[in-house]
Write a structure and sequence with these properties.
It is found in: Membrane. Its main location: membrane. It is a single-pass membrane protein. InterPro entries: Smim15. Keywords: Coiled coil, Membrane, Transmembrane, Transmembrane helix. The protein is mainly α. It has one domain (about 5-70). It is built from two helices and no strands. It has helices at about 5-15, 20-70. Helix 1 packs across helix 2. The longest helix has about 55 residues, at about 20-70. The mean pLDDT is about 95.
Length: about 70
């Protein structure tokens, strides 16, 4: 069975013995997650912009059609 307390103690011991190496290891482990988060955030922003642009275009077309109908009457 996984002993979390022993694992946590070994991590703290490693961090106390070699703080620079520990921080380097942590940063190397987290960098791919940071990159994935940045890419996904960028994609979400692009999707949101495209959706808003489409909604504005649709609203504009509806207003143009409404104005043409009113002009005919």
């Amino acid at each position: 069975m996984l002993d979390i307390k022993a694992w946590a103690e070994s991590v703290v011991e490693c961090a106390a013995k070699d703080p620079c190496g520990f921080l380097t290891t942590v940063m190397l482990a987290l960098t791919p997650l940071f990159l994935a988060s940045a890419v996904l955030s960028w994609k979400l922003a692009k999707m949101t912009e495209a959706k808003e642009k489409e909604q504005k275009k649709k609203k504009r077309q509806e207003n143009i059609a409404k104005a043409k109908r009113l002009k005919k009457d």
